[in-house]
Design goal:
heterodimer; A: 238 residues; alpha+beta; four-stranded antiparallel sheet; 27% helix; B: 176 residues; mainly alpha; globular
């Protein structure tokens, strides 16, 4: 039995969260390589998402909002004190130069690193009306339990930018490395990055992504690698 | 949602005001106990706040995203077996239900939508509707359902898939 046939019937159970955790992880790994299952998942997803909307609405107790907002406001006050000091952060690593450029995120800090020891500033603002594409990434949950990523590609196809949020820090002694896949070959993109305490980070991709079929991210030794040493944890089809 | 991810409590409060009722209702439908439902809903919203879980517009509505997180927490609560003892002992059921009044056009629309989806679910063949209900609202795994219904595992999975397919076709553009 081929892989697809083996997993095809798991789509419904996966959407209903009826797969035991190990089976769910195996199914997610299978999804990376099976477009048929991905297509079916997206086809059936609206039906699964309709289920909670069938529930008769009930009034939540006022205590729910009260206790939630107490916690949220207290934590926001605490964060506000920390972030006022830390609006701009600098990371330093032995071969990475880090430069913070003009910050366009509301209250965000972006850290950008290029593996050739040249730092690029990150500027997320649209420049001079240039059209910008944003491509969402596929994150392999069997490798990264949380986080999201997107690729921002200026219309002129110049240096693209990978932006990540809520990513776990890489293991000690490692760094996230960006790769470009072209014509079936994977090469270093010349970009290494780390993430801040809040899981945010970014990397400019020198030379952009023209002609690329995908942008990949793996965790590599702190000086980077010439070839990926593990399966991509983030994949962005271009 | 960007403001919530950036730690703005007012934005978070707006999200709660808009979706808190549906979140609590789903949690209550799953666990059948008001106190545990409150805990489930609170855990879900705090996870949105604290982990800065990132909403991705291309994946669907904010409501679906929030309810997905609530559902996940509800499953956790059910599988931690927190609910079953209380379900047996609890007599709360009817007297604590406070159905949301239809105050606004939005609430009327949502109640209508709930009715439409329920009717669609009721058109499913019995076994398909049952496995979906046990899985989605009961938090049971396919293995547990197979055992409960004395049904082969493959049959359970097949009925889940077919049931969702039929639901998708019945609801049609309303779920797009």
């Amino acid at each position: 039995m081929g892989d697809h046939e083996h997993y095809a019937d798991d789509v419904g159970a996966y959407l209903l969260r009826a797969l035991p955790e190990l089976d769910a992880q195996a199914f997610r790994r299978h999804l990376v390589d099976c477009s048929e299952c991905r297509d079916e998942l997206e086809h059936l997803r609206p039906a699964a998402e309709a289920l909670p909307r069938s529930v008769e609405p009930f009034v939540p107790p006022p205590s729910l909002k009260r206790s939630l907002m107490e916690v949220v406001k207290a934590e926001a006050r605490e964060r506000g004190g920390v972030e006022a000091v830390g609006r701009r952060r600098l990371f330093s690593r032995s071969r990475l130069a880090i430069v913070t450029a003009r910050v366009a995120f509301a209250g965000a800090v972006a850290v950008l690193v290029v593996g050739a020891a040249i730092g690029f500033g990150l500027d997320r603002a649209t420049r001079g009306g240039e059209a910008r594409r944003t491509i969402a990434a596929h994150v392999d949950r069997s490798m990264l339990s949380r986080g999201s990523a997107r690729l921002e590609v200026p219309g002129a196809g110049r240096s693209a930018t990978l932006v990540v949020r809520d990513l776990p820090p890489p293991p000690a002694g490692k760094v996230y490395e960006v790769w470009i896949e072209r014509a079936g070959r994977v090469r270093p993109a010349g970009a290494l990055f780390d993430v801040g305490r809040d899981g945010r980070g970014a990397a400019a991709i020198p030379g952009g992504v023209r002609g690329a079929s995908a942008v990949l991210v793996t965790r590599e030794p702190s000086r980077g690698s010439l070839r990926p040493t593990e399966r991509a944890s983030i994949r962005i089809p271009v | 949602m960007d403001l919530v991810a950036d730690g703005d409590p007012r934005a978070f409060e707006a999200v709660y005001d808009r979706h808190g009722g549906a979140a609590f209702s789903l949690a209550y439908r799953m666990v059948g106990d008001r106190t545990i439902a409150e805990d489930v809903a609170q855990e879900a919203f705090l996870s949105i706040w604290r982990s800065r879980l990132r909403y991705q517009r291309e994946r669907g509505s904010v409501r679906s995203w929030v309810l997905g997180i609530v559902h996940h927490r509800g499953i956790d609560a059910l599988r931690r077996n927190l609910v079953h003892e209380r379900r047996r002992a609890s007599a709360e059921g009817i007297e604590e239900r406070q159905e949301a009044p239809e105050r606004t056009e939005l609430e009327v629309a949502r109640r209508d939508e709930a009715r439409t989806v329920r009717e669609a679910i009721e058109t499913l063949p019995d076994q398909q509707g049952r496995v979906i209900d046990l899985a989605y609202f009961g938090g049971f795994t396919h293995t547990e359902i197979a055992e409960m219904l004395s049904m082969p595992l493959g049959t359970v999975k097949g009925r889940m898939r077919l049931g969702l397919e039929k639901l998708r076709n019945t609801l049609g553009p309303e779920v797009a």
